[in-house]
Hints:
The protein is mostly helical. It has helices at 2-52, 55-64. The longest helix is centred in the N-terminal third of the chain and has 51 residues, at 2-52. It is rod-shaped and about 100 Å long.
Amino acid sequence: MALVLILFGVMASYLNPVVNLVDAWRDSKVGEERLAELKAENGGLRERLREARDPATLEREARKLGMVKPGEHAYVLDGIDD
């Protein structure tokens, strides 16, 4: 009987580390998924940055803000629907 109790005690002492190991493994899988999501987002942001540095994109965005090139004249037209 004492041997059974000792065996049970030894098995119980291994239970907590096994549970911690399973939790760590599960957390690592979640971390890997999050890392993949962030890498995909980073790729998209890098592409947007490349596009934003394009001179044509810069000019288009500046014109949306109402900016004109030196020597051009800006005109405001009222009553025109898009």
